[in-house]
Design a protein that fits this description.
42% strand; 6-stranded antiparallel β-sheet; alpha+beta; 260 residues
């Protein structure tokens, strides 16, 4: 069972979460996510996620858990923050870029959530952070998240992070939602995830929405982000190439022709 922890969110677009730990309670987080910790909190770097699933098999189990994280593109190590004091102590974790932190009680979603590879921020100790393979080839090649996504399992609190504004949608049985492939943050295990061709030459080439949509079919819950990090990075890179001494002509015809 995961440790029971209390939390509080601070900020609006640049958020951080402060987690209160009683004695012997702990939270596991991505390496480098910690913002601050009070006296009495002990930090320990570990292989894998520190859940009982990896510890049951000893060293090989921990190596397998760490190997799964490497496959998802995450760091080989994670960090556990445990309260060694007799009094309640707090530790905080910051979002890596502008967006929102999403607290999730995994008990409310059947004990399992599937999320994009870089969405996980931290969770109560005992939460298993694994991988979820996409069985459909089309999803793997064109779904925006590839064949591999992260899988969070347990009965405690987990915290995800995504860009921009976050919207939660409850899909009824048979209800389908089409979204930009990069806007998907997380979904429950009951949601069917597939991709669909946009259709039409003009839509595909000039529509600006890419060649494929992600199709999500209920029942279940999905979380979407309004500003995927790759879109924000692309806009920054585009602006960086088009600014400088010629920034005053940004709206001119010559600048438009140069961009084309």
């Amino acid at each position: 069972m995961a440790h029971e922890v209390d939390y509080e969110l601070f900020g609006d677009d640049l958020q951080f979460v402060e987690i209160a730990l009683d004695q012997a309670e702990a939270v596991v987080a991505e390496a480098g996510a910690m913002m601050y910790m009070e006296q009495g909190i002990q930090m320990e770097t570990i292989f894998g996620d520190g859940s009982d699933q990896g510890n049951k098999s000893g060293l090989m189990g921990m190596l397998a858990s760490a190997g799964k994280r490497v496959i998802t593109g995450e760091s080989l190590f994670m960090t556990i923050f445990e309260n060694k004091d007799s009094r309640q102590r707090k530790v905080a974790f910051a979002a890596p870029y502008p967006g929102k932190i999403i607290p999730m009680d995994l008990r409310n979603f059947g004990g399992k959530i599937i999320c994009q590879k870089d969405a996980f921020l931290c969770a109560a100790k005992g939460t298993a952070v694994g991988i979820a393979f996409q069985k459909k080839i089309g999803v793997g090649f064109f779904g925006g998240e590839g064949f591999i996504m992260q899988k969070l399992e347990g009965d405690g609190l987990a915290f995800l992070h995504a860009g921009g504004c976050i919207v939660k949608r409850e899909l009824q049985p048979g209800e389908t939602l089409r979204v930009d492939t990069g806007c998907l943050v997380a979904l429950t295990s009951t949601v069917e995830y597939d991709v669909q061709f946009v259709g039409g030459i003009k839509n595909s080439i000039f529509g600006g929405e890419g060649l494929f949509f992600a199709t999500l079919a209920g029942p279940g819950t999905v979380w979407l982000q309004s500003l995927p990090f790759n879109k924000m990075a692309d806009r920054i890179m585009t602006a960086a190439r088009g600014t400088g001494s010629g920034s005053k002509e940004q709206g001119s015809i010559l600048n438009i022709l140069n961009n084309l």
